[in-house]
Amino acid sequence: MQIIDLAEQTRLLGQVAPALETLRDDVRKVREGEILKPVREIAPFARRTQQLAMQCTQQLHDLSISQYAAIKDGRQNLAQLAGACAQVSLAATLCTLAINSRTEILLYEDADPNPAASRDNLRRAADEMDRARTTYRSLTQHLSGRLASAAARREDEQLIDRALVGPGITTAHSPAPSPASTASSPVPPNSPTSSPAPKTR
């Protein structure tokens, strides 16, 4: 278990919801247009969403190996956080699919010139961003509230102490070999490795 600064983690969690809100607004704005230049219009926020997904996944990893997993509701919160990370990643993929759906008219003669497929992918991306934003906001408020409460901090400190001294932290020691097992066994008289007796005259 790594001990990290949960106040700093709260700050990082709190940055995700506003970022997702901005991305969602950008997605909806492009979706309302004709999407005549899909790469130029969609790629900027698709890339930013991918970067945000990577940051979210990194924080999920950092929290999962820290004391956060030991505090009250920590494991349940990590499960929710993993789901939100997946939603952000899915939103980024949907944005990329929206580009692909619109550029098919440049590659195939029978492609649908209507941007309906791209709009649908962007709608789904905005929905995923909204769901993830709600989760991040809730988790930020939960962690912030526990850090602000002296009673909650004491409770979490006790839970962390128990986790630190739990059976998963101790290591088993193998019993020391007995002297009998390490002593050299005598070589039998008739053993092939025994030295021959000296001859007497």
TrEMBL record:
Residues 170-185, 192-201 have a biased composition (Low complexity). It comes from the Bacteria. Residues 162-201 are annotated as: Disordered. This is Uncharacterized protein. It comes from Streptomyces tricolor.
